[in-house]
Amino acid sequence: MEQHIIKAIKLYSGDKPVALFVEKLDQNLNNLNAVFYNISLLFTNAGIENFEKAPDGIPERGQFAKLFNELNLFLEAAKIQGFKWNKSTFTFGKGSTKKIIEMSFDETTYLILALRYKELFSGGGGGGGTGTNNAPFEIQGHLTEIDTDKIDADYMNSRFEKYLKILLNQTDKEEVQKTLDELHRSFSSLTQEQQKYAGIFLRDVQRGEVSIKSDKTFREYITEYQFNAKNEQINSIIKVLGLDESKLRSLMTLGLTNNNINEYGRFDELKSTVDKNRAKAMLLPKKRTTFCVNLR
After folding, report:
1. I want to staple 175 with a disulfide (CB 3.0 to 4.6 A). Which of 29, 70, 171, 271 is the partner?
2. Where is the Type I restriction enzyme R protein C-terminal domain (predicted)?
């Protein structure tokens, strides 16, 4: 059928080359592995292990955006042809023509890359829309909507439990550090902001300042630390500026950027609630009183 279609197109197109057929599944899988290799190389050359953050340099970010866009084109084509994440090895042909293709990455790694891609759009902070979408490279909006909440947290939690066990048993320092390094490597499934609070939480654990509960996961502790820190920031801002708390909290839940923060005049409305006298007293430097002492 393919040959008949090609002949028909040649006849009716004046023998001009027309790309009608997508690559076969085996070629798309090879393309996926090749693009993933280039992404891995990009992160390695940028000094980033385990894809734990997006590259800092604009050229590297632009290259990652391009490669991730390309990866998704091959992935969508492969899915149409029957690719599923629960299978990592694919066999094609028989006998002397038989070939086996092993996937170089799994769904968890793909979702971690999707998380890093989102950070290009959000400014790299991982706060979910707190940055700007004026990136000097092409960002595909639909790719920023990939559900990265599906990243399996079981591995990270198992590393945390193992670390606690070794820490409590007072095993030698080398073993404790090895387990801690394993736990840190699993942080790539967290946003940059979450990674920061994970580090703070672990330091508190090491100091013995946290009462660990058996029914609480590592991610739940991170969320709690993040929430408490945000709450402290909000209370500090309210204390200094006298802002309307409900309006401030409402604005913070919208995931705004610099471009749309004042849509419908919502930021101006928040600013109008500032207690100017309080802000002036809190923000302006205090006048220094000079004392002259007569030593004679």
Report:
1. 171
2. 20-284
